[in-house]
């Protein structure tokens, strides 16, 4: 069954790597051995005339395997679970004299010991977790089989053959694409490595094709729906193509650890021409801005057809597409958002913020960054490569941040291992531990070249870690799955464990946390709407009997959501005098004209306040980010919301700015309701409204969503959605 290569190396036959699901090599239809008499006639033996796979959406094969939602006319089953096929012969089957078996083949160089050639034996009873076929019905010339795949078999698209034994060799059916069978991971099977024992969680993390991704700021959490679309036409083939592009050996594609690690590398295009090219510089020439995407379908289908990376993505786009990849293959997965996520370049659990002597941030020395939020994925699986107890949710991150074993990828890293500080367990646990546990260290860079640690903030990083609720669109706080509460004995023990296992942390911060004066500082930024003025209020409180004078500095920056500053739009120095046991507030007016000219697409403003108590030389430092409130796209629907019936969808947007918007694209998406579509408008004048109508015909019943986004030269991250309840088509 294997195509051999003529080359040999040191007495070892060299079979080329089997790395493509799409490549094929058909086995011979007749394999005769030895001398064959002239009287031998193929028609004298059992011959296959037809094979029936029961692959319609309503057939039990798809309903029982939870694959009836896939918009795919091939048979799709989940491993470790039985399914039915029927074979028609040229005469009645006689088990005493007739011998046949079903064969499954994947790739171009199939080998039985690699699991790429699977001869399925006909057995009297199926054994749990093992390949087998049991005759459950014989009727005239037909035989119906219950076929069961092993619970650890390769995941992919198999070619199916039926082989009949004769005294002189094997007669095999010819290649028939109609009998191709997809085999997926099975969270419903106890023997499968991705088994999940909660039905509601399986419905959410495997079968739900619409999700919610949280973004924004810890103090102003925002959300947007995302169309995963894992069941849409062409998506399953696109996901298999992603593994082919990675040249992933087929024999490893039954292991969710390997599949998720390869996926984390291939969803980004950084070093392997993967699915999405990232861009964080606010310039999106020859591509689509990350904020304009409403789902994964367009991205994966474009990658499959063009065979080139799709431009452009940022963390939530990488996470959304990766979630589609995992769920489509049957691995339970969810998108997670970490607010105030540390990008610690050397994973030393410390983010150094360097200050000038006047309190301003030294951008040349400050290399680490705090992302306002960062999205990654969690995938559910056992971890037989780790000690018992570290299976379950695993962090996998496809946003290209740091190099891991020569490629930009991250994970799978056990969430349980991260919580307890066991960062020695593969893969990339130290980096993820740093993302949620680093300390912020403020250091003054003196003019003489020395560095003085001024203050330490141990609670800023990993402030809140969230995901979507099971069965709802609300927020689920999962921070306690990653870390113990600050100050608990367990939290200190987890940190010590991480340090013991090599997560280095300089000890120069010991003893610097205590303030030498009784002065405390905080500041608040009022809710700000895009294009309007707002105030920053700074409060100084003196809890002691002494009199203090303070020199303070406020810096306002336009920032990327990654915490990297683009431009400073406000800087102001001011003096404050504090009487004993008193407080004083200072108000700063931020005018729209100061920030609008350089605004980035997510409308993040970052404020940094430092203050020096002149009498004690104490330095106080605080930083906060805000997200400006951006207007929404409005979606309305007219007509009956019924499967197969036309309904009119209206998308509407009013320009709130005092300037004309140009080169506007509006995107509309809704899995099961409409394919992703878009429309361009030349301009929208101030306070003017544009409307766009489309006729849609839903093909999926139940709760659905329509999602729309708008992007233009001056305004991005504009979004809107509408929930629908699509009724079944009334029976006649």
UniProtKB/TrEMBL annotation:
Record-annotated Transglutaminase-like domain positions: 307-400
Note on cofactor: Binds 1 Ca(2+) ion per subunit.
Keyword Oxidoreductase in record: no
Biased composition (Polar residues): 17-26
Cofactor(s) this protein requires: Ca(2+)
Residues annotated as catalytic: 315, 374, 397
Recorded catalytic activity of this chain's protein: L-glutaminyl-[protein] + L-lysyl-[protein] = [protein]-L-lysyl-N(6)-5-L-glutamyl-[protein] + NH4(+)
The entry's keywords: Acetylation, Acyltransferase, Blood coagulation, Calcium, Cytoplasm, Glycoprotein, Hemostasis, Metal-binding, Secreted, Transferase, Zymogen
Residues engaged in binding Ca(2+): 437, 439, 486, 491
One GO CC annotation: extracellular region
Family annotation (SMART domains): TGc
Enzyme Commission (EC) number: 2.3.2.13
GO biological process: blood coagulation, fibrin clot formation
Localization: Cytoplasm; Secreted
SUPFAM superfamilies linked to this entry: Cysteine proteinases, E set domains, Transglutaminase, two C-terminal domains
Region feature (Disordered): 1-32
PROSITE patterns reported for this sequence: TRANSGLUTAMINASES
GO molecular function term, any single one: metal ion binding
Role: Factor XIII is activated by thrombin and calcium ion to a transglutaminase that catalyzes the formation of gamma-glutamyl-epsilon-lysine cross-links between fibrin chains, thus stabilizing the fibrin clot. Also cross-link alpha-2-plasmin inhibitor, or fibronectin, to the alpha chains of fibrin.
Subunit relationships: Tetramer of two A chains (F13A1) and two B (F13B) chains.
Family recorded in the similarity comment: Belongs to the transglutaminase superfamily. Transglutaminase family.
The protein, known as: Coagulation factor XIII A chain
Organism listed in the record: Balaenoptera acutorostrata
Lineage summary: Eukaryota, Metazoa, Chordata, Craniata, Vertebrata
